[in-house]
Amino acid sequence: MYDFIVVGAGPAGSQCAFKLGSMGYRVLQLEEHRSVGKPVECTGVISRRVLSMAKTDSIVNRVHGAHIYFPSGKSIHVSKNEETIIIDRERFDQDVSAAAIEKGVELKVNSLFMDAQVHDDNITVRFRKDGNIIEEKALALVGADGAGSSVRRVLYPNQKVKRMVSSYQVEATVKMKDQDSVDVYLGSAYSRGFFGWAAPAGDLSRIGTAGFGMSRELFLNIFRKFLDPSKLSINGGLIPIHALDRTYGERSVLVGDAGGIVKPLTGGGIYTGMLSGEIAAEALHMAYGKENFSSGTMAVYQRMWKKAIGKELSRDLKIQKLFAKITDTSLNEMERTISVPTILNKINNAGDIDFPSKVVLGILIKKPSLIKHILFPVKEPS
Length: 382
Prior knowledge:
Layout: E1 2-7, H1 11-22, E2 27-30, E3 45-46, H2 48-51, E4 59-69, E5 75-87, H3 89-102, E6 106-108, E7 111-118, E8 123-129, E9 132-143, H4 150-155, E10 164-172, E11 181-185, E12 195-201, E13 204-211, H5 216-223, E14 231-240, E15 248-249, E16 252-254, H6 270-290, H7 295-323, H8 328-338, H9 341-350, H10 357-366, H11 370-375
Helix pairs in contact: 1-3, 1-6, 6-7, 9-10
C-alpha cells in the first residue's frame, strides 16, 4: 500500500509528488500517456517565480515586453525590467517529473485512471496499464489530471467547472521579428471574449487563440499575419477559468486544472498548478500527522490555496467576465485612452503575469474613465 497516489504528471501533479517524496512518503504517480509532457497544450510563458519552484533547462527564450494589437489595427507596446520566460513545455514537464522521481516517487506511464473507491482506512484506485486492470491502495488520492479530470468525474460528480474557454495553438516554422516581445491580439476578429497570441520561441513561434464558442477561422486570422508558415504541431483543448466550489473531499484533493485553479485573465495554469500542488502536499502531510483524512480535515487544503492566491483568482474572474463583454468599438476607445506615457508607465511598473489584476486595477485608478467602457461597452454599429 502506498501513502499517496497522484493522478497526472503535469507540473501540478509532479510538484505535489516531489514535495510528498521529499517528506519521505511512498508515492505512486500515474500518467495516462506513454511519455511525460505530451501532448503539449500550453504556450509555455512563465514568470521567474515558477523557475524558483523547479530546476529546469527548458528555457528557449526570455522576453521583456508585449505588443498589444487592438481591433482598429493600432497597437501599444509595454515592457518591464523583469523578464518573462518562454519554455519548452514538454522538457519542463519532464524536468519537474524527474525531480519527483529523484525523491523516490514511482511513476507509471501509459496508466489510465479508471475508478476510485473510498473506504474507512484507505482509497482503492483502479487503472489500466498496458491492457491490464490494476488496483492499488493509498491513504489519499491527488487528482492532477487536467481540465477533463477523470478523478473529478468519479469523486466529485456534483462539481462542475462553471467557465471554460477553448483554445487552438500551433508551433510554426517562423521566427518573429521581435524576439523580446509576445504579441497579443484583441477583438472579435481573433477571439470571442478572450484573446489571441504569438510567442517567440527562437526559430519557432507559438501562435494561437482562445475564447468562447471559437471557430478555426478566428485562429487563421492571426496565423495569416505570419505568411502561413508550416505547422510543426497542432494542439488545443479546454482551459478552466473558474475554480471549483470544492476542491477537496474524503481522502482526496484536486490540484491545478483539475480543480479549475487557473488564472482567469490569461488562462495560465503552470504557476497556480504548481502552487496548489505544493499546498496539497502540505495539507496531506498535516492529515497524515492527525491520522485523519476526512473531508473536514482535507478542507484545510482549500483554505490554504485560497489564502495564497484565492483573492487574485476571484478578482481576475470578475475582470474577465467584464472583459468578455467589451465590444471592438470600446476596445478601440480604450486604446486611445491608455496610449499615453503615464498609463504605459503604470503598466510597465505593475506588470506581473501571475497577478494580472494588479495591472488592471492600477490602470483604472489612473484612468477611471475606462470604467464606462468596461461596464457599459458601446454597441457595435449594425
